[in-house]
UniProtKB/TrEMBL annotation:
Pfam families in alphabetical order: TauD
Keyword Flavoprotein: no
UniProt-recorded name of the protein: Gamma-butyrobetaine dioxygenase
Gene Ontology molecular function: gamma-butyrobetaine dioxygenase activity; iron ion binding
Protein's GO biological process: carnitine biosynthetic process
């Protein structure tokens, strides 16, 4: 609840007092640009109807008053009065003194290790998730929080993995097709199509942008070995940062190069850091794939030794069993990973029996949009 309002700097800023004793400052220009009236934003979709150039550059607040749970503001020189709900203002406060360290993550992200997740892998049954919005909400929220989840009860048939993507979004088709086969082949064009073990990795770092989700579904698995495993790249990055801040800085500061040319007519290349931070230091992406790493040429000579030492240590931590959660997919099971965060791997398996998985890519915008819509619906129902 708002308790006081004070204008500052000739009306160019406003300071609000809250019931808990906190205070928050806002700029007049920011408030005007984010006004909630139907002349500024579409009532139908919430999109802004004006440009920044439609707002007078000399905009300031001529008057402000608290009316119940609403802050009423009059902007000059327009003479326009707009109401801002207190709850909306509280959720959009940007006057923060907290200094965030590089590598921070949002409140929805929970980093994990083997000790935390091996016996509590998030999972749901497909039939229940497709019929019950609460089950789907919990499963999608687990993907948002932990970066992976298992789904049981799919039909053990080709193309069934599409049903998982259909729960929240759309498949992202690539040169590998709408989906791709993961089983032993003769003369494969990708090491994923052998019975060799695969180091924990993120997929397709040579794409820009990378597919942000990967789904792998099991149709048949009667081999010895071949377990799947996942590693939280955000947790590994935090461990590296704690023991070697300089190495962490180097892997964030300089781009690696990735490339793929394994198919006729395809030549994919990208240039991005192995550990990517946003401009405000938020940890937003891990790219790690030994098979696709091209020569690193963007690190200065004076720092290349140290960079490679950090790369090696990052790889050692990724291989540390303390970070690895392992499970074996049975026919009709699938799992999804956030390909910007969670690395997946496969243990080697024997030549006897059959191991047939299918994989496809999707993107987080669809998953997060579906989750937000479901959560909004639950919130409205509760109110």
């Amino acid at each position: 609840m708002l308790t006081r309002v004070t204008l500052g700097d000739g009306g160019r800023t406003i300071e609000l007092g809250w019931q808990d004793g906190a205070s928050s400052r806002f700029h007049a220009m920011w408030l005007r640009d984010n006004a909630l009236d139907d002349k500024t934003r579409s009532a139908g979709n919430g999109q802004r109807l004006i440009t920044i150039l439609d707002i007078p550059s000399e905009t300031r607040i001529g008057a402000a008053a608290i009316k119940g749970e609403v802050l009423e503001v009059t902007f000059v020189p327009e003479g326009k009065t707009v109401g801002f709900p207190a709850g909306w203002l509280c959720s959009h406060v940007y006057d923060c003194q907290e200094a965030r360290q590089p590598g921070w993550t949002g409140g929805d992200i929970r980093r994990w290790t083997k000790a935390m997740m091996q016996n509590s892998v998030p999972r749901a049954a497909y039939t229940e998730a497709s019929r019950d919005g609460n089950v789907l909400r919990q499963w999608l929220a687990a993907v948002r929080s932990y970066g992976f989840a298992v789904m049981d009860g799919l039909p053990a048939e080709s193309g069934a993995l599409c049903k998982v993507a259909d729960l929240f979004g759309y498949i992202r088709e690539t040169n590998y097709g709408r989906w791709f086969e993961v089983r032993a082949e003769v003369n494969p064009n990708n090491l994923a199509y052998t019975n060799l073990g695969l180091q924990a990795h993120t997929d397709n770092p040579y794409r820009d942008p990378v597919p942000t989700l990967q789904i792998l579904a099991c149709i048949e698995n009667t081999v010895e070995g071949g377990e799947s495993s996942v590693v939280d790249g955000f947790a590994v990055a935090a461990a590296l940062q704690a023991e070697n801040p300089e190495g962490f800085r180097l892997l964030c500061s300089y781009p690696a190069r990735f490339e793929y040319a394994g198919s006729s007519g395809v030549r994919l290349q990208s240039k991005r850091p192995m550990i990517e931070l946003g401009p405000d230091g938020e940890l937003i992406c891990i790219r790690f794939n030994n098979r696709s790493l091209a020569p690193v040429v963007d690190v200065p000579f004076a720092e290349m030794d140290t960079y490679y030492a950090a790369y090696r240590r990052f790889a050692e931590l990724i291989e540390d069993p303390a970070f690895e959660v392992t499970f074996k997919l049975e026919a009709g099971q699938s799992f999804i990973v956030d390909n910007t965060r969670v690395m997946h791997a496969r243990k080697a398996f024997s030549g006897s029996g059959k191991r047939w998985l299918q994989g496809c890519y999707a993107d987080k915008d669809g998953l997060l949009s579906t989750l937000a819509a479901i959560e909004h619906g639950f919130k409205e129902a509760a109110e």
